[in-house]
Amino acid sequence: MRVLIVGGGGREHALAWKLSKSPEVKKIFCAPGNAGIASLAECVPVGSDEIEKIQSIAREKDIHLTVVGPEAPLAAGITDLFRENGQLIFGPCSEGALLEGSKAWAKKFMIDHGIPTASFETFADPVDAYEYLKKASYPLVVKADGLAAGKGVIIAASFTEASSAVRYIMEEKAFQSAGDTIIIEEYLQGEEASVFAITDGLSYAALPSVQDHKTIFEGDQGPNTGGMGAYSPAPVLTKKLSRQVNEQVFEPLLNGLREEGITYRGVIFAGLMVTPNGLKVLEFNVRFGDPEAQVLIPRLKSDLFPILYEAARGNLASVPYPEWSADAAVCVVMASKGYPGDYEKGIEMKGLDDLPNDETTMVFHAGTSFKDQKTVTSGGRVLGLTAWDPSLKTALQKAYKLADTVTFEGAYFRKDIAHRALRRK
Length: 425
What we know:
There is one protein chain. The protein is of the alpha+beta class. It has four domains: 2-91, Rossmann fold, CATH 3.40.50; 125-180, ATP-grasp fold, A domain (Dna Ligase, domain 1, 2-Layer Sandwich), CATH 3.30.1490.20; 190-318, 2-Layer Sandwich (D-amino Acid Aminotransferase, Chain A, domain 1); 328-424, Phosphoribosylglycinamide synthetase, C-terminal domain (Glycinamide Ribonucleotide Synthetase, Chain A, domain 4, Alpha-Beta Complex), CATH 3.90.600.10. 29% of the residues lie in helices and 27% in strands. It has 13 helices and 24 strands. The chain has a five-stranded parallel beta sheet with strand order 3-2-1-4-5. A five-stranded antiparallel beta sheet has the order 12-15-18-23-20. A hairpin with a 3-residue loop joins strand 13 (215-217) and strand 14. The longest helix is centred in the middle third of the chain and has 21 residues, at 239-259. The protein is globular and about 60 Å long. The chain starts with a strand and ends with a helix.
């Protein structure tokens, strides 16, 4: 089989790495890919948002399955385009992608189908939002409605902070049209966790729990990023709570999608808050998370290809339920100085040839490229230093040891990944 992966980050490197191990996969292409993916796949210099070009490449390369990594091409309708042309693709249609593409749409969907979530109000006019904030209780959460690369969520402790967030999103257009509409939401107390499921729209396979670290600084301080690290499993999500996720989240979600005539074949990513009053859904995403994929995929003992292939065909029930390692996995993101703000690109990376050759660590490339036959930085999040071990503490030690081997000028990473899990031990 010939597989095309859409995207060029750490998630796509993890997908390529795992799919390359499948006996059923003979050739992998990636659009656009990165310097790390290039060792596993033929990289095609086409942006992940150029969906017509990607569809043409899939036809020209005789691709049997296309796997979409990022959310933007899904929201833009890449799945609809492929299906119209009789090409197999793993990822939800554009209507299903509204679960991530529009927070307002997703919140209404949750209310309509009985999925627990925080109370909220939606605003398309900043004047109305400011008036609401004058009477609101604090803290609260201000969210851009559209896609904002994981950065469009601001927790506000006061009217001053909340009004600044509204101005930043709606009037200063920090996230462009993604902030034309905003959600102002109840602030939930508790601990976050993420749970994923692969579905063909009829049946689903739930994946192990993950906890990521969104903020840039240690101690969960500073602005949100696309994710500075992750670990799996997340102890906060007990077996009992995992059953509740299936009963209260995934099952009503799939029932609701079918009721609304939406054929959803892809990944569902539920961002959860475990509160004193039970589970609440913070948001849905419609793809493997990044860096969550970098800790989930190494724990998968089963062949990934048939799972994705049969889900895309609407035949997931024909595949044995995925088997998972009991090991803990961690990913420490190494980022460029200045991220999530402005940062320099094109910085040479050192130590990549000195990485250990073992079966329990992997450096996933997120923002890298080639320049003058050297590997250089090309993004804010550059590498995912990943390790797994029966002991979470040992896995962390392995991941941080990788940071002593491979680096670049201005490299930054958090040194407290998995701190909540370690406190529980």
